[in-house]
Amino acid sequence: MLVWLADFSGTFPVLNVFRYITFRAGGATATALLFVFFFGPAAISWLRIKQGKGQPIRSDGPQSHLSKRGTPTMGGLMILSGLFAATLLWGNLRNPYVWTVLAVTVSYGAIGFYDDYLKVTKQSHLGFSGKARLTLEIGIALVACSFIMQTGPAGISSGFALPFVKDWMIPLGLLFPLVGAFVVVGAGNAVNLTDGLDGLAIVPVMIAAATFGFISYLVGNAIFSNYLQIHHVPGAGELSVICGAMIGAGLGFLWFNAPPAQIFMGDTGSLGLGGLLGVIAVATKHEIVLAIVGGLFVLEALSVIIQVAVFKRTGKRVFLMAPIHHHFEKLGWTEPQVVIRFWIISVVLALVGLSTLKLR
């Protein structure tokens, strides 16, 4: 919204600063951080009163988790509120990519919210029907990816880019929305599975957001994209503002989610933020890079898939408990050890993902 002030830069030259994506991304980061930081305590108190017993804790999980009973969930409402407030204030609302990302984020957040609501009210881990939930996620992702394909530049709008390759893309044609939807749905659910320990999901999400904020800026800039020989997507640079807002909102939430957590993110946040990362990756033509940068999320999702598949076939478990962060807890790692070591892995993977920008 504030970008419109740049229209008056002819009269007031200082207002020209609002044209710069870097300035507005910084403003969005600070705004989202302060929003969540100041409104967080009131939100936590309100959720604690409304939820009573809070998020149900698995009795078959690590015994240390039993002390978390009564902790409210749906902390994703705090994150998404800060993210939306900052984006609407600092983002260019004329940009179609902004609205596409926000639409997917709020839609996935709403699905997660309903799932959280059912779990809290019924005090059960059985929330929203898995099939119904997945159907909604796929439908939303298909619409968003179809819009991205129509909005994208001619020649590459339906192409699937490969890291380390300069110019060639896999021409998907009408299959592009299907592949894009797979990325968005996969990202949403992978982040959702990662959210199981205090601070475990939010920091890797912020690391991925910072990485894709940088990638979005480069992809949207014709000079930088040409220099790095990556595909130029006009308008994609504006997604850096959303990534900045995500980082700020995440930092604000981490203040309250740090061990011992005062509130859990819940599916409201994890599903919405995962969907956000997925659709940004599709818009910037860096879907495979998301799998690298978000390798921790991929690992968490694969651990669940492998555990379920092997158990159904043989009756035996590959991991002591899935997702894999619980496996390490069962091995004797403390919760802070698991969380911090997984953060380190996320940083390393982000650096590997960024290296694909130059190694072509």
The number of helical segments is 13
Radius of gyration: 20 Å
The low-confidence runs, each spanning 5 or more residues with pLDDT under 50, are none
Main sheet: which strands, in order across?
Answer: 1-2
Provide the structure class: mainly alpha
Order of helices and strands: HHHHEEHHHHHHHHH
Describe the protein.
By secondary structure, the chain is mostly helical. The chain has one domain (2-159, 170-286). Helix content is 64%, strand content 2%. The chain is built from 13 helices and two strands, in the order ααααββααααααααα. Strands 1-2 form a two-stranded antiparallel sheet. The longest helix is centred in the first third of the chain and has 31 residues, at 21-51. The chain is globular, with a radius of gyration of 20 Å. The relative contact order is 0.16. The mean pLDDT is 91.
Secondary-structure blueprint:
Blueprint: H1 21-51, H2 76-90, H3 96-122, H4 130-151, E1 159-161, E2 169-171, H5 176-194, H6 202-220, H7 222-228, H8 239-257, H9 266-283, H10 287-293, H11 295-314, H12 324-330, H13 335-355
Antiparallel strand pairs: 1-2
Describe the structure concisely for a colleague.
It contains 13 helices and two strands; from the N terminus they run H-H-H-H-E-E-H-H-H-H-H-H-H-H-H. By secondary structure, it is mainly α. It has a two-stranded antiparallel sheet.
